[in-house]
Amino acid sequence: MEKILKSDNEWRNQLSEQEFNICREKGTERAFSGKYESCKDTGIYTCTCCGSHLFDSETKFDSGTGWPSFFAPISQKFITEESDNSHFMNRTEVVCTKCGSHLGHVFQDGPTPTGLRYCLNSISLKFIQRG
């Protein structure tokens, strides 16, 4: 997969201030504030920064946490997992493989079949509705 490399200034010109903070500076939106937290429409969730197809609505579930949650990506090759030890916690960060955008974190308390909960920021995602 060809990677997208841009300077901070290039990303600032492309993204809103809030998108830049979350996607490029690893910020987090407030719980229950994101537009996709309770979305039940059918479609594909893509990366806000580069448009890569990341998650299918068929893997979305209501985790009760206040952020959109999925039990699996479309393909593991579209996301990268990195160690995140910020805020005195040991978590696994999820980033877009193609552009490095911060998406959220993955936890091992999700439903079957994977047991994973990809807890993502709505700001990091765009939605393409099916049908």
Briefly say what this structure is:
By secondary structure, the chain is mainly beta. It has helices at 8-14, 17-23; strands spanning 43-47, 53-56, 60-61, 69-70, 79-84, 91-96, 102-107, 117-120, 125-129.
Task: Report what the structure shows.
By secondary structure, the chain is mainly β. It has one domain: Peptide methionine sulfoxide reductase (Metal Binding Protein, Guanine Nucleotide Exchange Factor, Chain A). The protein has helices spanning 8-14, 17-23, and strands at 43-47, 53-56, 60-61, 69-70, 79-84, 91-96, 102-107, 117-120, 125-129. Strands 3-4-8-7-6-5 form a six-stranded antiparallel β-sheet, with no helix packed on it. A three-stranded antiparallel β-sheet has the order 2-1-9, with no helix packed on it. The chain is globular and about 40 Å long.
Write the layout of secondary structure elements.
Elements: H1 8-14, H2 17-23, E1 43-47, E2 53-56, E3 60-61, E4 69-70, E5 79-84, E6 91-96, E7 102-107, E8 117-120, E9 125-129
Antiparallel strand pairs: 1-2, 1-9, 3-4, 4-8, 5-6, 6-7, 7-8
Note the total helix count. Answer: 2
- For CATH, the homologous superfamily is named as Peptide methionine sulfoxide reductase
Secondary-structure element series:
HHEEEEEEEEE
Please tell me the total number of domains: 1
Helix content: 10-25%
Q: How would you describe the shape?
A: globular
Average predicted local confidence, pLDDT: 95
Q: Low-confidence parts, pLDDT < 50 over ≥5 residues?
A: none
Radius of gyration: 14 Å
User: Would you identify the CATH architecture?
Assistant: Beta Complex
- What is the CATH topology? Metal Binding Protein, Guanine Nucleotide Exchange Factor, Chain A
Q: Quick one: CATH class?
A: Mainly Beta
Note the gap between the termini: 28 Å
Structural class by secondary-structure content: mainly beta
